[in-house]
Design brief:
This protein has 9 helices and 7 strands, in the order ααβαβαββαβααααββ. It is an alpha/beta fold.
């Protein structure tokens, strides 16, 4: 099983439907805050089920939702079929997005599932699709020093605030024996130190800074905001 296979199914990552809804609602709120204008063209790359993407679409001119899992895209198409602002894409369909047209690209909680080489290839793609004034937001990036207990604490805090604490406790126990835990042990997750990420982005033609707050609920993870450097 690959990470793409894992995400092409219902997973134990969300402990219940309330957790899933609150997660996507929080991410959508954070994305809306990043949208530069009402007519902006936005890409959410590796979007997952994006349950609250309607809120993002309402705040911009067009929203592309791109995900590699066929089941996820099927659900997205069913959910947003009536919204003319939303376009669902597979990664291989990114050619349908013209170069130099995107105002904002958000990549949330994806980089840990990609190799460094895959990430580098995508950086070239994203830079080509962005306007010169556009920005790339890489969120929920895992630093090398984060521990499993840190992620667990973040989930429990989120569960306490969101009213699903008991489900979060049960979910942590179930995740420990799930396919996710087995895949994480077999395939690993990709980590980036802050300086390493900034160097990678500079090497791919971006100017970048670390954002003070991460997108979503986990404050131990990192978000970076990058803009294309002008071609010399």
């Amino acid at each position: 099983m690959s990470w793409r296979d894992f995400w092409n199914a219902d997973t134990p990552i969300y402990v219940n439907e309330r957790h899933k809804a609150l997660h996507y609602g929080l991410v959508a709120r954070d994305i809306v805050e990043l949208i530069p204008s009402r007519d902006a063209i936005v890409l959410d790359y590796g979007c997952g089920e994006a349950l609250s993407a309607g809120r993002v679409a309402a705040a911009c001119g067009r929203l592309y939702l791109c995900d590699g899992a066929p089941l996820v895209r099927e659900r997205l198409n069913a959910r947003f079929r009536g919204d003319p602002k939303v376009v669902v894409l597979a990664p291989e369909d990114m050619g349908a997005v013209a170069d130099g047209t995107l105002d904002l690209i958000v990549v949330n909680s994806l980089l840990q599932y990609l190799s460094v080489e895959e990430f580098g290839e995508l950086l070239s793609l994203w830079r080509a699709k962005l306007k010169g004034t556009g920005q790339l937001v890489l969120a929920d990036v895992i630093p090398p020093d984060i521990r499993a207990v840190d992620d667990a604490a973040a989930l429990l805090s989120f569960g306490w605030k969101g009213g699903f604490l008991l489900a979060a406790l049960k979910g942590l126990a179930q995740t420990a024996v799930s396919d996710y835990r087995k895949l994480r042990a077999e395939l690993g997750l990709t980590h980036y130190a802050e300086g390493e990420m900034l160097d990678i982005l500079r090497g791919r033609g971006f100017t970048a800074v670390r954002r003070s707050a991460n997108l979503g609920h986990n404050p131990k993870r990192m978000t970076f905001v990058a803009r294309p450097e002008a071609d010399s």
